[in-house]
Design a protein that fits this description.
- By secondary structure, this protein is an all-alpha fold.
- It is built from 5 helices and no strands.
- The chain is elongated, with a radius of gyration of 26 Å.
- The model has no long low-confidence stretch (mean pLDDT 86).
């Protein structure tokens, strides 16, 4: 593939994909942005490895937290608890109306 200068916007998108870990190989990114895999490699090489590692670790932590939250929210005990809370809140509102002078 002949050399073609990429814009700063494309470069920023490539860096974002690298940090997010969206693509497994430089070739996939090169095909996506129609540039040379060597260009992707040069961009990857210029990114601080500690920064990439930090992003990878944070993403893994967020994925785990999201998975745990989804499991908790979709569990039957959580749903029953939410139903009981809303029923209790409704009963409390009805009880407040009993002591209301307008009623």
């Amino acid at each position: 593939m002949p050399y073609r200068k990429i814009s700063n916007v494309v470069r920023a998108r490539i860096i974002a994909h690298i940090l997010a870990g969206d693509y497994e190989s430089d070739l996939e990114l090169a095909v996506r942005y129609q540039c040379s895999p060597n260009t992707i490699g040069r961009i990857r090489k210029n990114i601080d490895p500690d920064l990439v590692l930090r992003f990878v670790n944070e993403r893994a932590e967020l994925d785990n937290a999201r998975r745990e939250l989804d499991e908790r929210i979709n569990s039957i005990p959580f749903m029953v608890e939410q139903l009981l809370r809303s029923s209790l809140a409704a009963a409390a509102k009805i009880a407040d109306q009993v002591h209301n002078d307008e009623w």
